[in-house]
Structure formats: structure tokens, C-alpha cells
Amino acid sequence: MKKRLSLSLALILAFALTVTACGGNNGNNASQSPSASSAASESASPSADAPKETVEVTLAGWGASPEETELLKQTLDEFQAKNPDVKVKHEVIADQYMDVIKTRLIGGEAPDVFYMDGSEAPGIIESGVLEPLDSYVGNDFDVTDFEEPLLNAFKSPDGKIYGFPKDFSPLAMFYNKKMFADAGITAPPATWDEFREVAKKLTKGNDVYGFGVAPELARQLFMTQAFGGKVVDENGSAVFNTAEAIQGLQLVIDQRIVDKSSGQPSDVGAGWGGEMFGQGKAAMVFEGNWAIPYLESNFPDLDWGTAELPSINGKKGTMAFTVAYVMNKESKKKEAAWKLISYLTGKEGMKTWTSKGFALPSRKSVAVELGFDKDPIRGALVAGAAYATPWQAGKNQPIISTNFNNQFVSAFLGDQKLDAAMKTAVETANKEIEASK
């Protein structure tokens, strides 16, 4: 996970934003004439017949694979061909991405448009540094086409939209077809009860685990909700030690402690679930579409498939990891910035960007047009978008996630009971949250 700003820097950010917000532009409607300030910076031509002045918009994001970098370049080239009056200056921030962005926001040097991970969104939205995008949306930009859970990840509590998701990566069940066949299992399990029994059949001591699990909040959050539990309350405090939340979390613990049918990657010397699965040390893992090119490249002879995650308590669930394009509230080029955002998250731009399936389209129509909804591997991933839980734990996520992970791993390893572990995690997290105010 990315490192966060220190408390003192966060306080400086809050103060700086309070001061600068008074002079900021509160949003221009893309369907209306630009305001006087944006007209001065973006459209200084003296008459309608004069050629438009080229506006340079800065776009920042983190690094990607060479294949993804080439896809983004292609998408940006297509945008600039259709919008010759807008020049995009693309910057890759390779290290400490959010620290760099927050520092630049404080100093008034942040890019016009930048990536925003869904996990960071609640805190950044609350800080007031982002431009709300609702007023820019015209009839040619179909908001209803976005998968609702992904769009909701970038909304404020009052319903304003501060970012449009460019893509997403959900979790699905990756399963070893040969191991299934050898054990006489004809279909992937559809419910958790079935999943538990299948995992026991596929486990072979400490050599092969039926279920390779990542014991962290980012993977278990949806399980806390299966019986009505929550991770945080409306005030941002940790509440994942309720009976309802623990009932969902207990499922994974029981597989480890009672059934002895689940293990984490480190148990078999693997670095992550995809490697554990590829090496044949786990018959089933919950991973995202990032595992697809990894398995195809590193384990070409492995016979595997995907399925939706098994339902829990009669409810479908999964996680979704999503990223949006957002606009700097202090940008002086908001009309041009919106042109860029609307293209990159519009149907045409998103089709190019997600065409190889490295990340999946957040627009339903694009997923259908590219055939991902019917794809034998990616279909299960796409199906999860409609009911996925975005990876977010409120504005205090770093504190909450760290304390959860520390104590949950302890319970997973059998060092303490789950309810005691979660009680300790919640109490410690809330003390740290209170101390940070």
C-alpha cells in the first residue's frame, strides 16, 4: 500500500485548502460558456473566426506495464486528434504517488487531472481539493452506463460525483481444473458451504491447500457485510468487531484452524496468491484480472478457470479495486480538463484503454462491446461488478486497515481467538483515530 502523509502535513493540507477554497472556481458547466477566468486562460482569441489557442492540460498517474503504457499513449493520441486545441502533458509519478500529489496540492502545483484510487477517495474528497463534476456532465456522457458500485466509490456523502472510474479489477475464484477433475469435482462451488467442502477435498497436508487466502482487510471486507456487519461507521470509527462482522470473518478462520484447508502464500514460500496458485500449492484462490496475464505468461501449461466467488449467507459478494480520473479544484483549465476526463472515461476512450483486458471497463456497454461479459475467463470478473464492494474503509483507512491486518493475521495463525483479536484491533484503531484529530 502507498505511504500516507504524516499528521502534520495532513493538517497543513487541510489548512491550505480552507484558505485557497475561497478563491477557487466552483465549477463550470461544460454545456455553458466558460467563466471569465477560464475564458482568459483557455480562449483568449479575439473573435469567433480566429483559431483557438492550444491549451495544455497536465495529467498525472502512476507507472504501469509497457503494454498498459502503450494503451494509454494510444488513447491520449486519439483524444488529441479529436481535440487539437488541447495538448496533454502526461507525467508518470513512479514512487510515493499520493504523497507527491498531496504535497503538490498544498503547494498549488498539482496537475489538472490525476488518478485517484478508490481507497483514497473518501479522505481526499472530504479535504475539498477536488472539483465536483456533476455540472460538467452533458447529454452525451451517459452516467447511468457506469457500474453503480464503482461510481459510488467516488461520491461524497451528499451524492456529488468527484471522479469517474476509468476501470476496475474485481476478485473472482481461480480454480485448478486438473485438481478438480482428479478429485471428482465437476463444477466450481457456488455457495460457501460447498466451497468449504471442496477445499477440504483438495487439501493435501501442507503441500497443497484447498484455498490460498490473503488474510487482509482488502480481501475480507465484503465478508464482514455478508451478515450485516460494517467496517466503519458514519463518523469514520472502526466497528468491525460486531457479532455480524465477526460471523463473516469467522468463515476464513474456521477453514484455517478447524478444517486446516487454507493457507497463505508465505506458508508455501510464495509471494502472493497468483504465484501460490500457479505453483500448484493452492487449488483455489481469490484474485483479480491482474492474475490472468501473470498466469498465462509464467504458467502456460496450467489448466485453470474462473468463477464468481461463492455466495455467503445467500448473498453474492466480491471486492472491486477501482481508479478514477479526478480534477484539481484549483485548475485554471477546467473546461479542457473536463474534455480530457470525459473522453478517457467515455465509451470511445475507455474501449481503447481496456481493449486488452489488463483492467476491465467500468462502463457496462464497453464490457459488452469488447465481449468481456461472455469471455470464458473474464466473464466471472465482469459479472461481479454489479454487486461488488469497492475497496474503501473511510477517511481513516490507513489506521483501520493496519490494525485489522495485524490482528486478523494473528487470529488466522491461531495465536488468539477472532473476537478477541478484532476487539483489540478496533480499540487500538479508534484510539489512534482520536489521537490524530
From TrEMBL:
<dbReference type="GO" id="GO:0015768">
    <property type="term" value="P:maltose transport"/>
</dbReference>
<feature type="compositionally biased region" description="Low complexity">
    <location>
        <begin position="30"/>
        <end position="49"/>
    </location>
</feature>
<dbReference type="GO" id="GO:0042956">
    <property type="term" value="P:maltodextrin transmembrane transport"/>
</dbReference>
<feature type="region of interest" description="Disordered">
    <location>
        <begin position="29"/>
        <end position="52"/>
    </location>
</feature>
<dbReference type="InterPro" id="IPR006059">
    <property type="entry name" value="SBP"/>
</dbReference>
<dbReference type="GO" id="GO:0055052">
    <property type="term" value="C:ATP-binding cassette (ABC) transporter complex, substrate-binding subunit-containing"/>
</dbReference>
<keyword id="KW-0732">Signal</keyword>
<feature type="signal peptide">
    <location>
        <begin position="1"/>
        <end position="21"/>
    </location>
</feature>
<dbReference type="Pfam" id="PF01547">
    <property type="entry name" value="SBP_bac_1"/>
</dbReference>
<keyword id="KW-0813">Transport</keyword>
<dbReference type="GO" id="GO:1901982">
    <property type="term" value="F:maltose binding"/>
</dbReference>
<protein>
    <submittedName>
        <fullName>Carbohydrate ABC transporter substrate-binding protein (CUT1 family)</fullName>
    </submittedName>
</protein>
<comment type="similarity">
    <text>Belongs to the bacterial solute-binding protein 1 family.</text>
</comment>
